[in-house]
Structure formats: C-alpha cells, structure tokens
C-alpha cells in the first residue's frame, strides 16, 4: 500500500489533527486517511453507472428494450476510409 510523507506541517496543524483524531477515537494516521479519503472521494460524487441506470429508469427502459436494440443493431463491420 502506498505511503505519503507530509513535510513542513505546522505544529498547530499537527496538534489540531491529534485533537480531532482523539475526538473521533482513532489514531492521527487514521484521521488523516479519513480526511484525505473524504476530500478526494466524496460520498455525493457522480458515479457514471448509477447515473446511466437512473437515466434509463427515468426513460422507462427495460431489459427487453435493450435486447431489442441489440437484435436490430447492424452487425456489419464498418468499411475503413480510403484516402486514395
């Protein structure tokens, strides 16, 4: 698992992290991991799969609709362009 070193952290910030960690009942390192995780992977982030599912449900699409589209889909390979 990757490790990160944070240099030049002020004493005040380090002390505040230790207090915050104690308040949450975990180590300072665990608190920093939680802060970083929340910053870069927020719980309300848009997930493309979830968004596509909601869109198809809003449109009233079912598995049968997708199967019908697959069957009617032209399976013929595309003809490459020629520049000659």
Structure overview:
57% of the residues lie in helices and 0% in strands. It contains four helices and no strands. The protein has helices spanning 11-24, 28-40, 48-58, 63-72. Helix 1 (11-24) crosses helix 2 (28-40). The longest helix is centred in the first third of the chain and has 14 residues, at 11-24.
| Shape by Cα distribution | elongated
Extended strand count: 0
What proportion of the residues is helical, as a percent range? 55-70%
| Percent in strands | under 5%
Listing every helix as H and every strand as E from the N terminus to the C terminus, the arrangement reads: HHHH
- Whole-number radius of gyration? 25 Å
The major pleated sheet works out as: none
Mean pLDDT equals: 90
| Structural class by SSE content | mainly alpha
Low-confidence stretches: none
The total count of helices amounts to 4
Could you give the distance between the termini? 53 Å
List keywords for this structure.
0% strand, mainly alpha, single chain, 4 helices, 84 residues
SSE diagram, text form:
Layout: H1 11-24, H2 28-40, H3 48-58, H4 63-72
Helix pairs in contact: 1-2
What is the compact description of this entry?
By secondary structure, the protein is mainly alpha-helical. 57% of the residues lie in helices and 0% in strands.
């Amino acid at each position: 698992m990757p490790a990160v070193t944070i240099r030049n952290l002020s004493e005040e910030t380090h002390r505040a992290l230790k207090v915050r960690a104690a308040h949450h009942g975990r180590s300072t390192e665990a608190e920093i991991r939680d802060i970083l995780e929340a910053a870069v992977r927020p719980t309300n982030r848009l997930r493309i799969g979830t968004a596509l599912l909601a869109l198809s449900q809003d449109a009233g699409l079912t598995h049968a609709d997708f199967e019908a589209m697959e069957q009617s889909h032209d399976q013929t390979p595309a003809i490459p362009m020629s520049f000659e």
